[in-house]
Amino acid sequence: MLGLIGTTFRAAALPAIRVTVPAALAERAVAAWEYDDTTSPDPAEDPYVRLQRHRAGALALIGLSITESGKLDADGNTVVDLSPELVGVAMDAADDVLRR
């Protein structure tokens, strides 16, 4: 059911969300975007590996957004508009960090 709701959200063309990314994290996201990964996904990969690959892709897309349109604020952090989907993926990954 949640996936069907998400499909509706994607079709709705939701507005971007302006976020502030601390400088060190912005640098790491940009590095993820610049990383040249030429490996192909394994068709038999387990769900955990697939999730990590998708999250790595989302991190790289955040890095791309920072590269293309990020602006430094007075504190040296990066302010950037992100798609709600990227924000959601990052927030889902935060749940895993909080569980550790």
From TrEMBL:
Name recorded for this polypeptide: Uncharacterized protein
Domain of life: Bacteria
Organism of derivation: Kribbella karoonensis
